[in-house]
Amino acid sequence: MYRLPTMSINLPLINVNGVLDAAISPLDRGFAYGDGVFETCRYQHGSIPLWSYHRERLLHSAERLQIPVDESLLMQYLNSLLAQIAHSGIQGAVIKIILTRGVGGRGYRLPDFVKPTYCVGIFPCSQLQTDQYRDGVTVRVCNLRLAQSSALAGMKHLNRLEHILARAEWQDEFAEGLLLDEQGRVVEATVSNLFAVKNNQLYTPDLSAAGVAGIMRRAIIEKLAPELGIVCRIVDMELDFLKAADEIFLCNSVYGIWPVNQLVDDRQTTALSQTNYSEGQITHALQKQLAYLLGE
To answer: What burial letters (b/e) apply to 35-71, b meaning 16+ CB within 10 Å?
Structure first.
């Protein structure tokens, strides 16, 4: 049987409003004000796992920001790139979709006419079974505190300055940084959501006032945990509760689930606090369920 030859593609591959390698205008409100949202997805074996969740969050976030979305146009731009990587034989990649309010004048007032900018990029991606995925990671508690804002909580909006400043607190000696809010409650990590296991139950922080409601977090709450018969509770989480947990793990849509072996709190220079976690049976069970979902 004849097969179409594969094409050689160099990543990243990016289009702006359907045009490859086009530039963003300096007058674009996403560039000027962070006026937009984005999604980061894993491409796996010809599809985007959990795409329905990504799509729903993108459209809902745009609605909250009053950005009109032409979904058919967005899908046209996305499918154009997906077709190219499908012909290239690429099996795994990271897809980033950026939606902004488009070009506008100076000032914060919303433009009378909005023509959104759609930017779709495809980037290289590591395999799911990395050393961090298999062996676990060490996480530190960040000094930076997340501000609370119910108007923005849960969204993956373009202003990520808090997370950038938090990530600047260390080099590569830790895999991730844990973020607390201004009241000292646990919220998330810089690019991840967080779960704790205590007495065979799952707990994850409430994100109604701060943080990003991640897609993998939602998948664990709504799909993976129920399939395993594991109860999951959304709670106001204190750091002491986290330190007393049996297991903790991090998750996001690109890397999946990372077990946490050790939590380091070095904010007090006079006393280094380290919490070590046992081999995570529930964490590993969720990893296996995720691998099944992704077809690994």
So the answer is: bbbbbbbbbbeeebbbeebbbebbbebbeebebebee
User: Roughly how many angstroms between the first and final C-alpha of the chain, as a whole number?
Assistant: 27
CATH architecture of 13-123: 2-Layer Sandwich (3.30)
Question: Residue 188 catalytic?
Answer: yes
Among 188, 190, 204, 275, the one annotated catalytic: 188
Task: Count CB atoms within 10 A of the CB of residue 225.
Answer: 21
State the catalytic residue, choosing from 39, 40, 176, 204.
40
pLDDT at 268: 59
Question: Is 40 labeled as catalytic in the residue annotation?
Answer: yes
State pTM to two decimals.
0.92
Distance CA 161, CA 30 (A): 14
Q: Rounded distance, CA 231 to CA 138, Å?
A: 26
Q: Checking DSSP bridges between strand 117-123 and strand 13-16, what pairing results, if any?
A: antiparallel
The domains of the chain are located at 13-123, 131-294
275 an active-site residue? no
* CATH dotted code for 131-294: 3.20.10.10
State the average pLDDT for the chain: 92
